[in-house]
Specification:
This protein has 250 residues and is of the alpha/beta class. The chain has a domain of 172 residues: 2-enoyl-CoA Hydratase, Chain A, domain 1. It has eleven helices and nine strands. The strands form two sheets. Strands 1-2-3-4-6-9 form a six-stranded mixed sheet, sandwiched between helices. It has a three-stranded mixed sheet with strand order 5-7-8.
Length: 250
């Protein structure tokens, strides 16, 4: 797929990079292509760990709502669940912003490496919609239930150092070393016995793909109703115009 590259190094670490300038918004096609890449690497004995990364200033700004409502949530989440079901450990290198569904994509990885300048936000309520991408399951798992509620209710942005303190990211690196530090962590994983790592990962993650699938069914149903609201339209306009939204509860 154009805009997606996969490279497997001699250290058994695969780099999966997507490039959707300017802010790496995703669609069903991109998430499906990432899942295809994960599944192909799962069958490649040369790959024992994956670095998920993106080109440009921002990791991923989520789905692009500009112009018309994004109504393909259910199809998107079918592909997203495939990311969680893949067997190979994933380290996400998160530069710039991981916003909305972009945060969900980052949370699909086992680990996240970020810089102090990185920004994370579950900004769905600020757009007037319900959160998605399985964040119901993944966000509380890394920050705890109370912190997840606060982040979801407020939609506020969290900078790298606070993200590290909360558990949103697992390692902090200098901006110029972010990708190399993510690769180093993946290399540490790849240096362990691959059968053992996959076995441990399966035990620790358990039925995570099933839980994410059930969560996305609820999320997509809630989103479908809220996409029709006036508040969603206002949230999209406010985001495009870089102003505070004026929600009315309709």
């Amino acid at each position: 797929m154009e805009g997606l590259t996969v490279d497997v190094g001699e250290d058994h670490v695969a780099t999966v990079e997507f490039d959707r300038p300017p802010k790496n918004h995703f669609d069903v096609e991109l998430i499906g292509a990432l899942a295809d890449a994960y599944e192909a690497l799962e069958e490649d004995p040369a790959c024992r760990a994956i670095v998920l990364c993106s080109a440009g200033r921002h990791f991923c700004a989520g789905a692009n709502f500009t112009g018309s409502p994004y109504t393909g949530a259910e199809a998107l989440y079918v592909q997203a669940v495939r990311l969680f079901a893949a067997a190979t450990p994933v380290v996400a290198a998160v530069q710039g912003a991981a916003i909305g569904g972009g945060l969900g994509l980052a949370l699909s990885a086992d680990f996240r490496v970020a810089a102090a300048s990185s920004r994370f936000a579950a900004n769905f309520a600020r757009l007037g919609i319900h959160h998605g991408f399985g964040i119901t399951v993944t966000l509380p798992a890394v920050v705890g239930n109370q912190a997840a509620l606060e982040l979801l209710y407020t939609g506020r942005r969290v900078q790298g150092e606070e993200a590290y303190a909360l558990g949103l990211c697992d390692r902090l690196a200098a901006e110029e070393e972010l990708r190399s530090q993510a690769h180093a962590l993946a290399g540490e994983i790849a240096a362990s016995a691959p059968l053992a790592v996959r076995s441990i990962r399966q035990t620790m993650r358990g039925d995570l793909p099933d839980r994410v699938w059930r969560a996305t069914q609820r999320e997509s149903a809630e989103q479908a109703g809220l996409f029709a609201s006036e508040d969603f339209q206002e949230g999209v306009r406010a985001t495009a115009e870089r102003r505070m939204p004026r929600f009315t509860g309709r």
